[in-house]
Amino acid sequence: MKAILAVVGLVLVAIVGYGAWQYLAVQRAVSSPTKEIVSESISRSGDTWHVSFVARFDAPVDRVFEAFRKPEGFQQYVPDNILKSTLVTEEGNTKVVDVVGRLDILPPGFKVQNLRTEYTFFPKENRITSRSVNFKLADLNSEYRLEATPDGKGTVLRFAQTSKDKAPMLVESLQKGALRETFATQVRAANRALGLEPVPAAEKAG
Question: Is the pTM above the cut of 0.85?
Answer without folding.
Answer: no
